[in-house]
Amino acid sequence: MHEESLGNVIRDYLTGEELEETSYEEFRQGLARLLVEEHGYPRERLLPKVGVCFPVAGDQYTRMIDLAATDAAGRVLLFVIFCSGEPGTYRREALAAARVYDQGPVPLVLVSDTRDAVLLETAGGREIGRGLRAIPAYAALAALAGPIAPLSEEALDRERRILFAYSEFLSGGCCQGACRPKPRG
Question: How many domains is the chain built from?
Answer without folding.
Answer: 1
